[in-house]
Amino acid sequence: MTTSAAHPSEAPLPTLNKLGISSLPEDIDARKVASEWFALFADKVTSNDPEGITNLLVRSSFDSGRPETADQVSVYWRDLLALTWNFRSFEGTTPIREFLTDRLPSAKIANLKLKTSDDAEGLAPVFARPMPDLAWITGFFTFETDVGFCSGIFRLVPTLDEQQRVQWKAHCIFTNLEELRGFPEKVGNLRDPTPYSGGWEKLREKEKLFEDAEPTVLIVGAGQSGLTAAARLKLLGISSVLIEKNERVGDNWRNRYDVLCLHDPVWYDHMPYIPFPENWPIYSPAKKLANWLEFYADSMELNVWTSTTVSHIEREESTGLFKVKVQHKNKGSERIFTVKHVVLAPGFSGGSWYTPTYPGMDKFKGQIIHSSEYKKAVDYLGKKVILVGSCTSAHDIGMDLYDNGIDVTMYQRSSTHVITAQSVVNVFFKGLFDETGPPITVADKVAASFPNLLNVGIHHRGTLAAEEAEKEMLDDLRRVGFNLNRGYKDAGVLLTAFTRAGGYYLDVGGSQYVIDGKIKLKSKSAMEGFTETGITFADGSKLEADVVVFCTGLGSTRDVIKTFLDPKTFQNVNEIWGYNNEMEFNGIYGDTGVPNLWYMMGSLGLCRFYSKRLALQIKAIEEGVFGERYKSKV
After folding, report:
1. Where, if anywhere, are coiled coils annotated (predicted)?
2. DSSP assignment of 404-424, as one string?
3. CA-CA distance, 575 to 578, in Å (whole number)?
């Protein structure tokens, strides 16, 4: 694998060369090094000494934030609720020192303990060399604050002291709220002990109807986002109702095209409390996942109102409560809920799909649909089909059409990041979300402990490694005219998915169809418009078609929110999805700009992890222990 030290994405990486290390000792005792560093760290934390803590961190000539060049190294601290009641990533010793000065006194950190053995909550200190020029010791620890029990992870890298001796200092620290003091999840020995003796079914029906009391939380949408949020809330003793427009839980997957299958692996997709069985396929068929979601809702005893829509949400300024008007499709009945919290979980687009407009669309005598309307290839037998778009749905549909003998052409509007689904496992998930990985609770914390500011460099390296492994396939794609890119900041698929929810293809075979000409390709010329019989392009060429399928992704999340909320409340809603200046998500899982209005969205893996963080915030608010959000000063 070749890397370029001059590439901007390299800047966050603590390479041995930047640290001045020409060679490492052969007998590194990870536990001893971690224990010695952690003892100093714990002492400085409990004595409220921000300067002393930052002296235990890596320093460079540039310590106020992001390195200006790839030759400099920075330092990171990511906090999820534990010290900030927010999702924050601090870069550079100066911002970290300021954050600690502001927050340490009120947090009242105590009882710091280093993990010295592996279990479901953490791992013993370990030395790793993930790449030839990267080396670190990882340690897990636990601690308490005035309101809860927390976990943490640190990574130590080798530096040189004044005598040119190796001295280990922290390059990245992660702190994370796990549990509110006095309010644990009702699992294990805290599970419900009631012997229902035949009365369980009636109690469940009564609970679901909310005839005698209002739920504390109303959740719009019962896909994986809404279900995971409801499950977390339930086990924290917070009542909720899920409003689902479809007839059955899982229809958001069940009603998509027949050949739809998840392209991320099963090890990353487990849901909280009920993991997939051990024989579950690596890549979940959509209809199988749909049935699982329905089973999950029933098993977790979640209160779902199906065939019901939300027509309006209004926030009362005087009380802060939400009035939510819902309508049952079949019964025609209407109800207005009055709730303290609303969680919007309608998916990335809430069923709003993006179809661009082109001149002449009204003149086209064929059929124009969005990929969300496509069901199965047999509906298009004997027809010529053009797919506008070159990401996941275009490849999936293209393969389905060709396999059923249908003439299909993919029109690529802009470049696409392509990586095989297997490379995601081999490069990005290896040893973490795979068959050999640690318990999912540990894997989630390890993944979260890398701030996205740092992930840019790590994932850039991973993308280069994947490119090397897939060179023949990628060269063949370029040869047939397929335009490629390396994703967000040249850092590959995961950061691209997290910021765009599109723009990439996890290859499960579709690329070979394009290479072999089974899916014909049109690229490198702008689409000008429609004729009665097809599409014209800027280079003067034309494509004849009977059907045009726009595989152009999702609509605006904010537009979906706007359809629910009263205008006065909506004007205060922050940006939703994508990254802020710290590369933390905008708006989701935390502060939306409107008190007690929440947004829950993302992949199964994101929902599994962040549903707990969302539920902890709601529980803390309800119990009166939620502190002040520590917001960016920028």
Report:
1. none
2. TT-EEEEE--S-BEEEEHHHI
3. 8
Residues 321 and 375 in one domain: no
Give me 630's structure tokens.
């520590």
**The residue to which tokens 């997290």 are assigned:** 498
Beta bridge partners of 179: 149
Contact 405, 567 (CB under 8 A): no
Beta bridge partners of 388: 411, 550
User: How many structural domains is the chain composed of?
Assistant: 3
Return the H-helix or E-strand segment holding 269: helix 266-269
**Two tokens, residue 24:** 């490492």
336 - beta bridge partners? 325
CA distance 18 to 9: 14
Domain end (from 550, 573, 606): 550
Q: Are residues 381 and 527 in the same domain?
A: yes
287 and 209 in a common domain:
yes
Q: How far apart are CA 535 and CA 537, in angstroms?
A: 7
Q: Is the pTM of this model over 0.85?
A: yes
Determine the structural domain holding residue 324 and report its residue range. Answer: 200-351+555-622
301 neighbors 204 (Cβ within 8 angstroms): yes
